[in-house]
Amino acid sequence: MPGSDWYGRPAVSLLFEPVVHHGQVLGVVVVGWRHRLAGATSRLVSIASLLTTEAAVAMQQADLVADLRESAGTDALTGLGNLRAWRETLLSELARAERHGVPVCVALVDLDGFKAFNDAHGHPAGDALLKKASTAWRGRLRHGDFAFRYGGDEFVLLLPGTDLDDADPLVERVRAATPDGETASAGVACWDRRESPQSLVNRADRALYEAKDAGRDRTAVAPTPGP
User: Fold this and answer.
1) SS3 assignment, position 151
2) Can you list the residues of the chain whose pLDDT is less than 50?
3) Are residues 62 and 101 in the same domain?
4) Which among 75, 112, 145, 153 is annotated as catalytic?
5) pLDDT value at position 42?
6) What pLDDT is stored for residue 195 in this prediction?
7) Same domain, 43 and 120
8) What is the pTM of this model?
9) Residue 217 known to be catalytic
10) Is residue 153 domain-shared with residue 204, that is, in the same domain?
11) Which residues 6+ apart lie within 8 Å of 187 measured at CB?
12) How far apart are CA 139 and CA 137, in angstroms?
């Protein structure tokens, strides 16, 4: 405003130009002069308008970058983290577990008989079931747990600070939330602090298949590897 300090000297004349983005005023570009102007010329107004247009474009680009970053790590169907986000988060949580000496478990979960459901009801119904199941499962997790879509009808849970004694009943609560009378099977593995991330996932995957082979609608726990 007039009389404000402008780089060590008072601004005598000011020109205000709003920054408009998607029809919404997000801010105002203020141009100040150290001398008094008789009036804003068309050239000055054009320059100020150009500045606000550039600011609006920059904001739009920032929004696009944020959207791309979010979509790069989010499964479009379920809204859960995708495979890329899973890999990044797993590495981060294993490193944190190593630093702090805390356990971390992984659980693979998938719907029983999902292919038959798709064949009987069609892919749109199958997609709707995946969305509903993922929402229900995520609702049974604790603050600090993670859920990702691993692929198809298979999902993966990352449970930081959790050992097998706590992971087993937690995954059972997740499975129990499976909607519409459907069932799910799960395999759980706890990191042994020596194996690679892929080895940990492979053990959970084998446990999942053990649950399937044992009749489905159950959780199988992977034994801890020997020394």
Assistant:
1) strand
2) 1-3, 6-7, 65-66, 68-70
3) no
4) 153
5) 66
6) 94
7) no
8) 0.70
9) no
10) yes
11) 107, 108, 203, 204, 205, 206, 207, 208, 209, 210, 211, 219, 220, 221, 222
12) 5
Residue 89 pLDDT: 95
For residue 20, the SS3 value is strand
What's the CA gap between 197 and 201, in Å, rounded? 6
Same-domain check for residues 31 and 99: no
Q: Which residues pair with 154 in a beta bridge?
A: 110, 151
CATH number at residue 141: 3.30.70.270
List all residues 6 or more positions away from 223 whose beta carbon is below 8 Å from its beta carbon.
none
∠ CA 84-129-165, rounded to 5°: 65
Token pair of 51 as six digits: 């500045």
Written as one string, the DSSP assignment of 121-135 is H-HHHHHHHHHHHHH
**CA atoms of 22 and 99, how far apart (whole Å):** 46
How far is residue 30's CA from residue 8's CA, in Å, rounded to a whole number? 16
Q: What is the pLDDT of residue 57?
A: 65
